[in-house]
Amino acid sequence: MTGSMRLGLNLGYWSGADHGANVALAVEAEHLGFSSVWAAEAYGSDAATVLAYVAARTDRIGLGSAVFQIPGRTPALTAMTAATLDALSGGRFRLGLGVSGPQVSEGWHGVRFDKPLGRTREYIEIVRDILDRKPLRHEGEHWTLPLPDGPGRPLRLTVHPVREHIPIYLAAVGPKNLELAGEVADGWLAVFFSPERSADSLAHLQSGLDRAGRSDFDIVPTVPVVVGDDIERCADLVRPGAALYVGGMGSREHNFYNAAAVRMGFGAAAAEVQERYLARDYAGAAAALPLELVDETSLLGPVERIADRMVRYAEAGVTTLGVSLADVPAEVQQDMLRAVAAAAERSGVCV
Q: E strands of the chain, at which residues?
């Protein structure tokens, strides 16, 4: 039985283009009934400032980080930021976290990319304790708070979040990280989510949920959308971003997204995309992506086809469909956003 599914808008990275156009998209998404708007960060704009700006220009829509980088902030700073954003927005914030990758963690933040599962588990434990306004005490492998040999004291958060529980989402790709998301988080931020090939990922997620004895969980894939009549041409607008992730978001030895494409059954193509991308043949890497992979993990085509694909996502268990608009002129993005809303209404599965 198909469940109901909410709509979200992922603004992605704040690239330094027309900031007004990006905010206008968030405002229009709220007007169209979208449930949430999300912002990302890598080594450019930070997500917290973007979300504070969007919060000031909107009234009802939920605000989410997709994601705050774990190596870029101490757990305490993340909790402070989450509490502040929740208070400023009137209780609309949801905290998405991710470990990033070795290149960004070590090259940008100077934090060793070691034991990411254990580090993430401890990080979330500390953040939850702070948001629960407990005196901060933690003894773990990665953090000891307060430090035992100095003047530190077990301090308590002075900001009162609007809600007793700020939901935490985890960006996860690999099987063990998916199990961790089900066990310790309130939602999963997914990429390259194919309804047709999601069973294994969802099984790992369910394993974590079962371990924690929970069932209430938000599955939120970010899905590129391009509206048009020619599927191939639509796919061409998605290919460069997808090639970056499969081919270049990591090293030859450590690329979670490439590994995900392999698990989905696209091993030969994933190897070729990576080889071409690392050789700086970016156009060749994009061209090497199979149409089947791009199509299954995107919303491409006219409104009617997108509506049909939305049904497949709902059938697969997605509860919030986070759309990411193609890099096209601002007025075309506005039209695409309205087309997504029309497709959602036509699908009959979105609320």
A: 6-10, 36-39, 62-65, 68-69, 93-98, 138-139, 144-145, 168-171, 187-190, 218-227, 299-301, 320-325
